[in-house]
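QA checklist item 7 of 12: single-chain prediction sanity check.
[x] sequence parsed
[x] length recorded as 349
[x] structure emitted
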Amino acid sequence: MLPVMRAAAPVTLRDVAVLAGVSVATASKALRGDRRISEATRERVRATADRLDYTPNALAQSFASGRSRTIGVFTHRAQTPFTRPVLIGAIKELGLLGHATLVFDADVRGGRWRDEDVRRLQARKAEGVLVVGTNNELVSRSVTDRFDSPVVYAFTDSDDPADPVFQIDSAGAGRLAVEHLLATGRRRIAHVTGGRDSLSVRGRETGMAETLAAAGLRTAHPPLYGGWSQDWGATGTEQLITAGVQLDAIFCGNDSIAFGALRVLEAHGVRVPDDIAIVGVDNWEGVMLDQGTRRLTSVDLRLERLGAAAARRLALGEDADDTHAPEPANPQRRVVTPVLVEGPSTATA
Protein backbone atom coordinates (compact mmCIF):
# COMPACT_ATOMS: atom_id res chain seq x y z
CA MET A 1 0.00 0.00 0.00
CA LEU A 2 1.31 3.42 -0.91
CA PRO A 3 1.86 5.80 2.01
CA VAL A 4 -0.71 8.57 2.40
CA MET A 5 0.80 11.91 1.40
CA ARG A 6 -0.29 14.66 3.72
CA ALA A 7 -0.28 18.27 2.63
CA ALA A 8 2.31 20.36 4.40
CA ALA A 9 0.86 22.66 7.01
CA PRO A 10 0.71 26.28 5.82
CA VAL A 11 3.38 28.64 7.12
CA THR A 12 1.97 30.92 9.81
CA LEU A 13 2.95 34.34 11.07
CA ARG A 14 4.17 32.65 14.25
CA ASP A 15 6.60 30.56 12.17
CA VAL A 16 8.00 33.73 10.62
CA ALA A 17 8.29 35.43 14.00
CA VAL A 18 10.14 32.49 15.63
CA LEU A 19 12.65 32.17 12.81
CA ALA A 20 13.20 35.95 12.66
CA GLY A 21 13.64 36.13 16.44
CA VAL A 22 10.83 38.60 17.11
CA SER A 23 7.38 38.53 18.64
CA VAL A 24 4.28 37.81 16.55
CA ALA A 25 3.13 41.40 17.03
CA THR A 26 6.49 42.76 15.84
CA ALA A 27 6.46 40.42 12.81
CA SER A 28 2.97 41.60 11.89
CA LYS A 29 3.94 45.27 12.15
CA ALA A 30 7.16 44.69 10.20
CA LEU A 31 5.33 43.05 7.30
CA ARG A 32 2.86 45.96 7.22
CA GLY A 33 5.82 48.36 6.92
CA ASP A 34 5.19 49.99 10.31
CA ARG A 35 7.97 52.57 10.68
CA ARG A 36 7.95 52.17 14.46
CA ILE A 37 9.86 48.95 13.76
CA SER A 38 13.48 49.51 12.77
CA GLU A 39 14.42 49.13 9.12
CA ALA A 40 16.85 46.31 10.00
CA THR A 41 14.10 44.36 11.76
CA ARG A 42 11.60 45.01 8.98
CA GLU A 43 14.09 43.75 6.41
CA ARG A 44 14.92 40.64 8.49
CA VAL A 45 11.25 39.75 8.91
CA ARG A 46 10.52 40.32 5.20
CA ALA A 47 13.50 38.15 4.21
CA THR A 48 12.33 35.41 6.57
CA ALA A 49 8.79 35.56 5.16
CA ASP A 50 10.15 35.28 1.61
CA ARG A 51 12.35 32.34 2.56
CA LEU A 52 9.38 30.52 4.10
CA ASP A 53 7.10 31.51 1.20
CA TYR A 54 4.72 32.99 3.74
CA THR A 55 1.36 34.27 2.48
CA PRO A 56 -0.58 36.51 4.87
CA ASN A 57 -4.06 35.38 5.87
CA ALA A 58 -6.29 37.68 3.84
CA LEU A 59 -9.25 37.21 6.16
CA ALA A 60 -7.18 38.05 9.22
CA GLN A 61 -5.76 41.11 7.46
CA SER A 62 -9.26 42.22 6.59
CA PHE A 63 -10.35 42.00 10.22
CA ALA A 64 -7.23 43.82 11.39
CA SER A 65 -7.46 46.65 8.86
CA GLY A 66 -11.22 46.98 8.73
CA ARG A 67 -11.05 46.71 4.91
CA SER A 68 -12.84 44.02 2.91
CA ARG A 69 -10.63 44.23 -0.21
CA THR A 70 -13.80 43.18 -2.07
CA ILE A 71 -15.25 44.78 -5.19
CA GLY A 72 -18.81 44.08 -6.26
CA VAL A 73 -19.50 43.64 -9.97
CA PHE A 74 -22.98 43.95 -11.46
CA THR A 75 -23.28 42.62 -15.02
CA HIS A 76 -26.28 42.74 -17.34
CA ARG A 77 -25.34 39.64 -19.37
CA ALA A 78 -21.89 38.37 -18.51
CA GLN A 79 -21.85 35.64 -21.18
CA THR A 80 -22.28 37.90 -24.23
CA PRO A 81 -19.24 37.97 -26.56
CA PHE A 82 -18.54 41.67 -26.10
CA THR A 83 -19.13 41.72 -22.33
CA ARG A 84 -16.72 38.87 -21.57
CA PRO A 85 -13.48 40.74 -22.43
CA VAL A 86 -14.62 43.79 -20.43
CA LEU A 87 -15.33 41.61 -17.40
CA ILE A 88 -12.07 39.68 -17.80
CA GLY A 89 -10.07 42.89 -18.02
CA ALA A 90 -11.70 44.28 -14.89
CA ILE A 91 -11.24 41.12 -12.81
CA LYS A 92 -7.61 40.72 -13.88
CA GLU A 93 -6.81 44.34 -13.01
CA LEU A 94 -8.56 44.12 -9.64
CA GLY A 95 -6.66 40.90 -8.89
CA LEU A 96 -3.35 42.62 -9.63
CA LEU A 97 -4.39 45.39 -7.24
CA GLY A 98 -5.18 42.88 -4.48
CA HIS A 99 -8.97 42.92 -4.65
CA ALA A 100 -11.39 39.99 -4.72
CA THR A 101 -14.53 40.29 -6.85
CA LEU A 102 -18.10 39.21 -6.22
CA VAL A 103 -20.15 39.07 -9.45
CA PHE A 104 -23.94 39.39 -9.72
CA ASP A 105 -25.35 38.80 -13.21
CA ALA A 106 -28.81 40.15 -14.00
CA ASP A 107 -29.40 37.59 -16.75
CA VAL A 108 -29.36 34.68 -14.30
CA ARG A 109 -31.36 36.62 -11.71
CA GLY A 110 -34.58 37.13 -13.61
CA GLY A 111 -33.30 39.97 -15.76
CA ARG A 112 -32.47 42.36 -12.94
CA TRP A 113 -30.28 42.72 -9.89
CA ARG A 114 -32.09 42.03 -6.67
CA ASP A 115 -32.23 44.23 -3.61
CA GLU A 116 -30.70 41.35 -1.68
CA ASP A 117 -27.63 41.54 -3.96
CA VAL A 118 -27.18 45.18 -3.04
CA ARG A 119 -27.68 44.41 0.66
CA ARG A 120 -25.15 41.57 0.45
CA LEU A 121 -22.49 43.91 -0.92
CA GLN A 122 -23.37 46.52 1.68
CA ALA A 123 -23.01 43.90 4.43
CA ARG A 124 -19.63 42.83 3.08
CA LYS A 125 -18.49 46.46 3.12
CA ALA A 126 -17.51 46.30 -0.54
CA GLU A 127 -14.85 48.92 -1.29
CA GLY A 128 -16.32 49.68 -4.68
CA VAL A 129 -18.90 48.60 -7.25
CA LEU A 130 -18.41 48.13 -10.98
CA VAL A 131 -21.42 48.02 -13.31
CA VAL A 132 -20.63 46.27 -16.61
CA GLY A 133 -22.96 46.62 -19.60
CA THR A 134 -23.29 44.90 -22.97
CA ASN A 135 -22.67 47.76 -25.43
CA ASN A 136 -22.36 51.52 -25.75
CA GLU A 137 -26.09 51.90 -26.46
CA LEU A 138 -27.15 50.66 -23.01
CA VAL A 139 -28.13 53.08 -20.24
CA SER A 140 -28.07 51.51 -16.78
CA ARG A 141 -30.10 52.71 -13.84
CA SER A 142 -27.71 54.40 -11.45
CA VAL A 143 -27.04 52.51 -8.21
CA THR A 144 -24.45 54.99 -6.96
CA ASP A 145 -26.65 56.44 -4.22
CA ARG A 146 -27.11 52.99 -2.70
CA PHE A 147 -23.45 52.65 -1.74
CA ASP A 148 -21.06 54.60 0.43
CA SER A 149 -18.15 53.35 -1.70
CA PRO A 150 -17.39 54.53 -5.26
CA VAL A 151 -19.33 53.14 -8.25
CA VAL A 152 -17.99 53.08 -11.83
CA TYR A 153 -19.82 52.11 -15.05
CA ALA A 154 -18.08 50.24 -17.89
CA PHE A 155 -19.45 49.54 -21.38
CA THR A 156 -22.74 51.13 -20.35
CA ASP A 157 -23.90 54.65 -19.67
CA SER A 158 -25.62 55.64 -16.45
CA ASP A 159 -28.87 57.57 -16.26
CA ASP A 160 -27.05 59.92 -13.87
CA PRO A 161 -24.62 62.12 -15.86
CA ALA A 162 -22.52 62.65 -12.73
CA ASP A 163 -21.51 58.97 -12.63
CA PRO A 164 -18.05 57.99 -13.96
CA VAL A 165 -18.42 56.04 -17.23
CA PHE A 166 -15.85 54.19 -19.37
CA GLN A 167 -16.81 53.50 -22.98
CA ILE A 168 -15.49 52.58 -26.40
CA ASP A 169 -14.31 55.34 -28.75
CA SER A 170 -16.45 54.92 -31.88
CA ALA A 171 -15.37 58.25 -33.40
CA GLY A 172 -11.75 57.31 -32.77
CA ALA A 173 -12.36 54.00 -34.57
CA GLY A 174 -13.66 55.87 -37.62
CA ARG A 175 -10.69 58.24 -37.63
CA LEU A 176 -8.16 55.44 -37.21
CA ALA A 177 -9.64 53.32 -40.02
CA VAL A 178 -9.73 56.16 -42.54
CA GLU A 179 -6.31 57.51 -41.57
CA HIS A 180 -4.92 54.06 -42.34
CA LEU A 181 -6.71 53.86 -45.69
CA LEU A 182 -5.46 57.33 -46.66
CA ALA A 183 -1.94 56.36 -45.63
CA THR A 184 -2.11 53.38 -48.00
CA GLY A 185 -3.06 55.65 -50.90
CA ARG A 186 -6.84 55.16 -50.92
CA ARG A 187 -8.95 58.15 -51.88
CA ARG A 188 -12.36 56.79 -52.98
CA ILE A 189 -13.70 55.27 -49.76
CA ALA A 190 -17.24 53.94 -49.25
CA HIS A 191 -18.91 53.14 -45.94
CA VAL A 192 -21.16 50.13 -45.26
CA THR A 193 -22.40 50.08 -41.70
CA GLY A 194 -25.17 49.25 -39.20
CA GLY A 195 -28.44 51.01 -38.40
CA ARG A 196 -28.61 54.77 -38.85
CA ASP A 197 -29.77 55.41 -35.26
CA SER A 198 -26.97 53.43 -33.59
CA LEU A 199 -24.55 55.43 -31.44
CA SER A 200 -21.69 53.27 -32.75
CA VAL A 201 -22.69 54.01 -36.33
CA ARG A 202 -22.96 57.74 -35.72
CA GLY A 203 -19.63 57.85 -33.94
CA ARG A 204 -17.74 55.92 -36.60
CA GLU A 205 -19.36 57.93 -39.38
CA THR A 206 -18.39 61.19 -37.65
CA GLY A 207 -14.78 60.09 -37.27
CA MET A 208 -14.67 59.04 -40.91
CA ALA A 209 -16.22 62.27 -42.22
CA GLU A 210 -13.93 64.50 -40.15
CA THR A 211 -10.83 62.65 -41.32
CA LEU A 212 -11.86 62.77 -44.99
CA ALA A 213 -12.74 66.47 -44.73
CA ALA A 214 -9.33 67.23 -43.23
CA ALA A 215 -7.81 65.61 -46.33
CA GLY A 216 -10.11 67.58 -48.67
CA LEU A 217 -12.18 64.47 -49.49
CA ARG A 218 -15.64 63.03 -48.94
CA THR A 219 -17.09 59.53 -49.14
CA ALA A 220 -17.22 57.94 -52.59
CA HIS A 221 -20.91 57.19 -52.00
CA PRO A 222 -23.41 58.14 -49.27
CA PRO A 223 -23.11 55.68 -46.35
CA LEU A 224 -25.16 52.50 -46.66
CA TYR A 225 -27.06 51.65 -43.47
CA GLY A 226 -28.35 48.21 -42.55
CA GLY A 227 -27.58 45.54 -39.96
CA TRP A 228 -24.43 44.23 -38.33
CA SER A 229 -24.39 40.91 -40.22
CA GLN A 230 -22.33 39.34 -42.98
CA ASP A 231 -25.48 39.18 -45.12
CA TRP A 232 -25.88 42.95 -44.91
CA GLY A 233 -22.19 43.43 -45.69
CA ALA A 234 -22.66 41.31 -48.81
CA THR A 235 -25.87 43.13 -49.80
CA GLY A 236 -24.40 46.59 -49.29
CA THR A 237 -21.27 45.76 -51.27
CA GLU A 238 -23.39 44.29 -54.08
CA GLN A 239 -25.30 47.58 -54.20
CA LEU A 240 -22.06 49.52 -54.61
CA ILE A 241 -20.90 47.26 -57.44
CA THR A 242 -24.28 47.32 -59.19
CA ALA A 243 -24.37 51.13 -59.00
CA GLY A 244 -20.95 51.29 -60.64
CA VAL A 245 -19.44 53.31 -57.80
CA GLN A 246 -15.77 54.01 -58.39
CA LEU A 247 -14.01 53.13 -55.18
CA ASP A 248 -10.74 51.78 -53.88
CA ALA A 249 -11.69 51.04 -50.27
CA ILE A 250 -14.64 50.16 -48.05
CA PHE A 251 -14.73 51.06 -44.38
CA CYS A 252 -17.12 48.57 -42.75
CA GLY A 253 -18.94 49.29 -39.51
CA ASN A 254 -17.84 45.98 -37.99
CA ASP A 255 -15.96 42.83 -38.95
CA SER A 256 -19.10 40.83 -39.76
CA ILE A 257 -20.00 43.40 -42.42
CA ALA A 258 -16.40 43.30 -43.63
CA PHE A 259 -16.48 39.52 -44.07
CA GLY A 260 -19.66 39.86 -46.13
CA ALA A 261 -18.04 42.55 -48.28
CA LEU A 262 -14.97 40.39 -48.75
CA ARG A 263 -17.12 37.46 -49.90
CA VAL A 264 -18.89 39.51 -52.58
CA LEU A 265 -15.75 41.18 -53.87
CA GLU A 266 -14.03 37.84 -54.26
CA ALA A 267 -17.09 36.45 -56.05
CA HIS A 268 -16.88 39.33 -58.55
CA GLY A 269 -13.19 38.74 -59.13
CA VAL A 270 -12.20 41.97 -57.38
CA ARG A 271 -8.75 41.68 -55.85
CA VAL A 272 -8.47 42.56 -52.16
CA PRO A 273 -6.51 44.66 -51.36
CA ASP A 274 -5.07 45.37 -54.82
CA ASP A 275 -8.32 46.76 -56.28
CA ILE A 276 -10.33 47.49 -53.15
CA ALA A 277 -9.08 47.54 -49.54
CA ILE A 278 -11.30 46.70 -46.58
CA VAL A 279 -11.16 47.79 -42.93
CA GLY A 280 -13.53 46.52 -40.25
CA VAL A 281 -14.06 47.19 -36.54
CA ASP A 282 -13.91 44.86 -33.49
CA ASN A 283 -10.80 42.77 -34.29
CA TRP A 284 -13.09 39.74 -34.24
CA GLU A 285 -10.34 37.42 -35.45
CA GLY A 286 -8.00 38.42 -32.64
CA VAL A 287 -10.34 39.06 -29.72
CA MET A 288 -13.26 36.73 -30.30
CA LEU A 289 -11.91 33.88 -32.41
CA ASP A 290 -8.35 34.00 -31.05
CA GLN A 291 -7.06 32.20 -34.11
CA GLY A 292 -3.71 32.23 -35.85
CA THR A 293 -4.99 33.18 -39.29
CA ARG A 294 -6.06 36.68 -40.24
CA ARG A 295 -7.95 38.01 -43.26
CA LEU A 296 -8.96 41.50 -42.18
CA THR A 297 -7.45 44.77 -41.11
CA SER A 298 -9.59 45.85 -38.20
CA VAL A 299 -9.85 48.48 -35.46
CA ASP A 300 -9.63 46.89 -32.02
CA LEU A 301 -11.84 48.76 -29.54
CA ARG A 302 -9.80 47.19 -26.70
CA LEU A 303 -12.68 45.93 -24.58
CA GLU A 304 -10.41 44.14 -22.13
CA ARG A 305 -8.48 47.35 -21.63
CA LEU A 306 -11.77 49.20 -21.10
CA GLY A 307 -12.60 46.89 -18.20
CA ALA A 308 -9.12 47.29 -16.74
CA ALA A 309 -9.26 51.10 -16.97
CA ALA A 310 -12.63 51.20 -15.22
CA ALA A 311 -11.33 48.88 -12.48
CA ARG A 312 -8.26 51.06 -12.00
CA ARG A 313 -10.40 54.17 -11.52
CA LEU A 314 -12.53 52.26 -9.02
CA ALA A 315 -9.64 50.85 -6.98
CA LEU A 316 -7.11 53.69 -7.17
CA GLY A 317 -9.15 56.73 -8.19
CA GLU A 318 -6.84 57.40 -11.13
CA ASP A 319 -7.24 57.24 -14.91
CA ALA A 320 -5.04 55.24 -17.28
CA ASP A 321 -2.93 57.11 -19.83
CA ASP A 322 -4.70 55.45 -22.76
CA THR A 323 -8.09 56.92 -21.85
CA HIS A 324 -9.39 60.43 -22.45
CA ALA A 325 -12.50 62.55 -22.03
CA PRO A 326 -13.96 63.22 -25.51
CA GLU A 327 -16.26 65.93 -24.14
CA PRO A 328 -14.38 68.54 -22.07
CA ALA A 329 -17.66 69.52 -20.41
CA ASN A 330 -18.07 65.99 -19.03
CA PRO A 331 -14.74 64.77 -17.60
CA GLN A 332 -16.51 61.86 -15.86
CA ARG A 333 -17.07 60.16 -19.22
CA ARG A 334 -13.90 58.57 -20.59
CA VAL A 335 -13.17 56.44 -23.64
CA VAL A 336 -10.35 53.99 -24.32
CA THR A 337 -8.10 54.76 -27.29
CA PRO A 338 -8.55 52.10 -30.02
CA VAL A 339 -5.72 50.51 -32.01
CA LEU A 340 -5.47 49.34 -35.61
CA VAL A 341 -4.57 45.70 -36.25
CA GLU A 342 -3.28 45.31 -39.79
CA GLY A 343 -4.18 42.30 -41.91
CA PRO A 344 -4.16 41.20 -45.56
CA SER A 345 -7.23 43.27 -46.52
CA THR A 346 -5.19 46.49 -46.76
CA ALA A 347 -1.86 47.18 -48.40
CA THR A 348 -0.05 50.08 -50.02
CA ALA A 349 -1.81 50.94 -53.25
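[x] summary fact logged: The CA atoms of residues 145 and 151 lie 9 Å apart.
[ ] second reviewer sign-off
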